[in-house]
């Protein structure tokens, strides 16, 4: 498994979709604008995500994309494997030749590392990432009261200097 920009953008776009799933289909133009990812690049990614049955599309006015499965059943590994091209047999865990023309014994190391990466990314669900984004957003959103917006965490000092 390779961790590429393509995979990173696909995960980012799927998080955006997950954050807005309750609002109906999400347009690629909207994701493009919010995440600053090229619309044509998103179209390529979503064609692959659709082929792997991770998203569904709705055509026409009010159309767009929505998740094809519950967020908890979609892993980061699913997303990355859907959009990234498979490794060639000579890449990644292939045998390496040293100057002595003997096979180097590292293919097992790379294959094991690859398996560990896949296992880890498979353990992280889209729901985990969406909930993490929601927590981060709620921590950075200013609170609004009668005196106007105030950053979270600051004490609201209402007339504390007034002596009674």
Topology:
Elements: H1 5-19, H2 28-35, H3 39-51, E1 55-58, E2 64-67, H4 76-83, H5 107-123, H6 126-140, E3 143-145, E4 148-150
Antiparallel strand pairs: 1-2, 3-4
Helix pairs in contact: 1-3, 1-4, 1-6
Please, could you describe this protein's structure?
The strands form two sheets. The protein has a two-stranded antiparallel sheet. The protein has a two-stranded antiparallel sheet with strand order 3-4. It contains six helices and four strands. Helix content is 46%, strand content 9%. The protein has helices at residues 5-19, 28-35, 39-51, 76-83, 107-123, 126-140, and strands at 55-58, 64-67, 143-145, 148-150. The chain is globular and about 60 Å long. It has a domain at 5-87 and 125-137: Arc Repressor Mutant, subunit A (Orthogonal Bundle), CATH 1.10.10.
